[in-house]
Amino acid sequence: MDLSEIQSVKNRFGIIGAAPALNYAINVAMQVAATDLTVLITGESGSGKESFSKIIHSLSVRKHGNFIAINCGAIPEGTIDSELFGHEKGAFTGALDARKGYFETTNGGTIFLDEIGEMPLGTQARLLRVLENGEYIRVGASKTQKTDVRVVAATNVNLLDAVNKGKFREDLYYRLNTVPIYVPPLRERDEDVLMLFRKFTNDFAERYRTRPVRLSPDARQTLLSFDFPGNIRQLKNIAEQITILETDKEEPIDADTLWRYLNPVNPSSRRTVSQALVPLSLGEDATSFSEREILYKVLFEMRRDVTELKKLVREVLKDEQSNHEILKNHQDLFDNINPADAPVTETSRLLAAHEERLSNNARNDSSSREYTPASRVVDLDRYSQARSQIEDVEHIAEEEESLSLEDQEKDLIIKALRRNNNKRKYAAQALGISERTLYRKIKQYDIDE
Ligand SMILES: Nc1ncnc2c1ncn2[C@@H]1O[C@H](COP(=O)(O)OP(=O)(O)OP(=O)(O)O)[C@@H](O)[C@H]1O
């Protein structure tokens, strides 16, 4: 194993970590890239499987061909055949034109089939055929076509279990598994946790124009002992939350504060570091725990946002109302205030920063706004509106509290979908869950899109 070559691949693909199991997996990917073999990447959700498919494509002779990543769990069962293999005009209701599938458009390149365990059995039969001899048939066609595509597949479920349950074809499993690559979970890469945390907090500090957080020795131990059911994706989310919410960057983050981010559902449960090693969800499988924990975290974050926002607006209202009193009693004096001399309170500074982030339009408008007593009265109207909006938010938050966890989950998903124009990919990103999980939840809760 040439460690310097492995390091250069890590640099090129932004892979952080030095755990031997990670180096081994990268080495296998580098070796297999040059061949045209089918590769199956296994590893828990969020462990970083996608980069491996890119390494394999980029270091192969197909590097100038197309690379396409498809999440099999995110495509509805009724359309996956047509997406992958294309269809003829009139093949089904709504097929107004013939359409090429990904196996046709990626001819000469690589297809990454993520969440392969979610592929319906009928599609598995078509995939096996294309893997065996490059042949496929468009939906609704009778003519066989040929393509030359390399397949890299990934799964975060045990495919042999799926084979035993009759959900996955055994012949396809062995065909895909020609070369397996195992991406280790974060808890098996102790030495990488601190390195990744530092990298993520530095990157987010740069993005949000703040200083990177530091961890106390106890907090570092807590991070090292945590299980990370959501793996690197979870660590990255936590690093982002801490960077934004822990505004006091003078002191290092202590273990209790860090624990609130690691376990927002039950923040008071941390007593000793060793307790962090105890499974948190006996009786629940790791996947459902990780999804639930992530959704809890979203809820927690929303609550915290609402609380922060309420605090902010109350402070601004207080400031503005007392200024309004002064304005009434000392109109003459106030008229003479030079805008440049006006005190800038911390809350108004925060609000301004918040406004700036929220809307470019606001930034454009602000240049035409003048700081006069009249405009401050108008501002009071704006803050009254803001107050009533906050009351609405409080009302919604109260309603949310009265909902069951399932209802809250459903509600969150509906809101995320609406906010993202029903684009599942972006809604899933906003919720911090995979597209496959989102798709399953949409079906589970029977959500209309
Ligand atoms: N070694 C790493 N260094 C830096 N970032 C990483 C590393 N591994 C993963 N990430 C980041 O973690 C996130 C999750 O990784 P990725 O999407 O590849 O996981 P996955 O195993 O494909 O998950 P899923 O099975 O849910 O699709 C991504 O934002 C990715 O950039």
Automatic annotation (TrEMBL):
Domain Sigma-54 factor interaction: 15-244
Record InterPro entries: AAA+_ATPase, AAA_lid_NorR, Homeodomain-like_sf, HTH_Fis, P-loop_NTPase, Sigma_54_int, Sigma_54_int_dom_ATP-bd_1, Sigma_54_int_dom_CS
UniProt keyword Nucleotide-binding present: yes
Superkingdom as given in the UniProt entry: Bacteria
Pfam assignment, any one: Sigma54_activat
A GO biological-process term: regulation of DNA-templated transcription
Keyword list, A-Z: ATP-binding, Nucleotide-binding, Transcription, Transcription regulation
GO MF assignments: ATP binding; sequence-specific DNA binding
The protein, known as: Sigma-54-dependent Fis family transcriptional regulator
